[in-house]
Design goal:
The protein is an alpha+beta fold. It folds into three domains: about 5-90, Rossmann fold, CATH 3.40.50.20; about 100-115 and about 175-275, D-amino Acid Aminotransferase, Chain A, domain 1; about 115-175, Dna Ligase, domain 1 (2-Layer Sandwich), CATH 3.30.1490. It contains nine helices and 16 strands. The chain has helices at about 10-15, 20-30, 75-80, 90-95, 100-110, 155-165, 220-230, 260-265, 270-290, and strands spanning about 5-10, 35-40, 45-50, 50-55, 60, 65-70, 85-90, 115-120, 135-140, 150, 170-175, 175-185, 190-200, 210-215, 235-245, 250-255. A hairpin with a 2-residue loop joins strand 3 and strand 4. Helix 3 packs antiparallel against helix 4 (about 90-95). The protein is globular. The protein starts with a strand and ends with a helix.
């Protein structure tokens, strides 16, 4: 069966990720799927004549079998799902992953270790920080290592809280190995691989911020931690990030919904998009069987 899919990006990210987009479209073609790039700015959703509607470039458009949403827009995902489209990742997973407070709330339910984390609303930020200096402040919707601040003393704390625009932040202990983390790449229920990211010049280890990366072999204990997370959520393709405690143990950090694969491609020959397209076909087949 021939499937049609949308690959949804905003314009800026589509330009920056042109090579990745072309790779994705080609991997889909090799598995008999037509994948079209759709720009979020050209997509209009709403309710017209008491029906959910989706228009592209101000015209009615034939809806796809599935959509891979590569922009942070959980409501768009929810709307497309309500139109009968398979959305990857789902609106629920997108909401979970793109709110760091929610992520920590639900991962704690699994009794997995993490650093001390405080959930703070912008309107109720205390004058005195709730944990000792130094610590990390993160805007809950930040990604890619952005909207993350290392706070050493009172003046930095005051400057930070006066400049933050987000309505929600988390404050975290930094009793970890700074400048290092582990990203685990997941497709469906498969652990595709892991990389260790490291920076000698920044407390953040993000590859796009100048950090280095190397292949990382998970221990049995680390593998079990990742599997526990995977088994409790319906992921399509995500990156699960862990900080490294002073004792070398994994500490949950965050889940990346719109995960890139630069680091994985740089340190291995794993074709994650081939695996992802196969996963998408499997979910489409299951959906088709349920309908019929």
């Amino acid at each position: 069966m021939k499937y049609l899919g949308w690959l949804i990006y905003n314009k800026k990210d589509a330009i920056q990720n042109n090579a990745y987009i072309n790779w994705f479209i080609e991997e889909a073609r090799l598995q008999n799927i037509t994948l079209e790039l759709i720009l979020r700015e050209e997509l209009t959703i709403g309710i017209t004549n008491n029906q959910r509607s989706v228009r592209y470039q101000n015209e009615d458009i034939h809806l796809p079998d599935f959509a891979v949403v590569r922009t942070i827009d959980p409501f768009l995902s929810l709307h497309l799902e309500s139109c009968g489209i398979l959305v990857l990742n789902s609106s629920g997973i997108s909401t979970l992953c793109n709110n760091k407070a929610l992520s920590h709330h639900y991962i704690h339910n699994l009794e997995l270790p993490m650093v001390d984390t405080m959930f703070i609303q912008k309107g109720s930020i205390p004058t005195t920080p709730p944990i000792p200096y130094p610590f990390i402040v993160k805007e809950v919707a930040g990604r890619g290592g952005k909207q993350v601040y290392f706070i050493n003393h009172k003046q930095e704390w005051e400057n930070c809280i006066s400049s933050i625009s987000s309505s929600e932040i988390i404050i975290q202990s930094c009793n970890v190995t700074l400048g290092q983390d582990i990203r685990v790449f997941v497709v469906g229920t498969e652990i595709v691989g892991a990389v260790k990211r490291e920076s000698s010049s920044d407390f953040r280890a993000n590859y796009k911020l100048g950090g280095s990366a190397e292949w990382y072999q998970l221990s049995i204990k680390e593998f079990d931690i990742v599997k526990k997370i995977i088994n409790n959520f319906d992921f399509d393709m995500v990156g699960i990030d862990f900080l490294i405690g002073k004792d070398g143990a994994f500490l949950f950090n965050e889940i990346e919904d719109i995960v890139g694969s630069r680091t994985l491609s740089a340190v291995s020959d794993v074709n994650i998009l081939k695996k992802y397209v196969t996963h998408i076909k499997r979910k489409l087949s299951i959906k088709h069987l349920k309908v019929h």
